[in-house]
Specification:
GDXG_lipolytic_enzyme, AB_hydrolase_fold, hydrolase, nine-stranded mixed sheet, alpha/beta, Rossmann fold, BD-FAE-like_dom, 9 strands, Alpha/beta hydrolase
């Protein structure tokens, strides 16, 4: 069932100013590989309790392009840390740099999702508890994909024999249907740049990379998407949610009336409580 809410922003800031807003420095940076972009910034929970905290592993968006990096997840990571979460903002190789795109982006995200929770557990005071994977836009695509790797063929290098140990995935304005994104031409063909060609011309790659083709994931998911999103149309999430539920997955879609692409990662927006609600729902808090 869709939960329709208002997501209109208040305040004088522009809707995308969260991309450049200053945030605190991370408490630690951990490396899940040897390459410069195979790292994650960790922020500790600010409650000082010293007990295991839930960990939110954040996969940033930016249409998989090198122009965008994990820095813009700082404001949301700060807000979550203030609410008692530990966070780990993952970096990965992106289109436009050596090794980015197909298959390097997928190599990195799979490795990060598998390794970062244990790395964070070593540095967060009191350790970590349950883990939720959160991704925005292209990061939402990668988060849904990473949670669905049991559906990959045995020959795929990223395949898992069992679902990753996650309480769930929160996908914010995700590119949840990659083949559809290719046909829609989102962001001047960003999906095609990721795949190294059009989805229609590369059906084997698309079948390995499209979360919509990897259902059921067997991992609970909550999708949060604004109806006024001009970067990633809400139909992306609607199509994924319908297919996931039909396949037997626990999948909820929260639509935010009148909300665009960036308020869902902005703690100062009226969309942010819906994101917090999604995390609490998956964690049973």
């Amino acid at each position: 069932m869709n939960d329709i809410q208002s997501g209109r922003r208040t305040g004088a800031a522009e809707p995308d100013d969260v991309l450049t807003r200053r945030s605190s420095s991370p408490d630690a940076t951990v490396a899940y590989g040897e390459l410069p972009d195979q790292v994650a910034d960790v922020r500790f929970p600010r409650d000082g309790a010293g007990t295991a905290a839930p960990l939110v592993v954040i996969v940033h968006g930016g249409f998989w392009r090198t122009r965008y990096d994990r820095a813009h997840t700082g404001p949301m990571a700060d807000d979550l840390a203030a609410r008692g979460f530990a966070t780990a903002s993952v970096e990965y190789r992106r289109v436009g740099q050596d090794g980015g795109g197909w298959p390097g982006t997928f190599d990195d995200v799979a490795r990060a999702v598998d390794a970062v929770p244990a790395l964070a557990d070593r540095v967060v005071p009191g350790g970590i508890g349950d883990v939720v994977l959160l991704g925005h836009s292209a990061g939402g695509h990668l988060a849904l994909w990473a949670a669905s790797r049991t559906r990959l063929p045995l020959s795929a290098p990223w395949r898992l024999p069992a679902p990753p140990p996650l309480r769930g995935v929160v996908a914010l304005a995700p590119v949840a249907a990659l083949e559809l994104a290719s046909r829609q031409g989102l962001s001047d063909g960003a999906a095609d740049a990721l795949l190294g060609g059009t989805a229609g011309d590369l059906p084997e790659r698309t079948a390995l990379a499209d979360p919509l083709a990897l259902l059921p994931s067997s991992v609970p998911s909550v999708l949060v998407h604004g109806t006024a999103d001009e970067n990633v149309p809400v139909e992306q999430s609607r199509r994924y949610a319908r297919a996931a539920r039909a396949a037997g997955d626990d999948c909820t879609l929260t639509e935010l009336t009148g909300t665009g692409h960036f308020p869902v990662i902005d703690p100062l927006s009226r969309a942010w409580p819906a994101v917090l609600g999604a995390l609490k729902a998956l964690l049973g808090r």
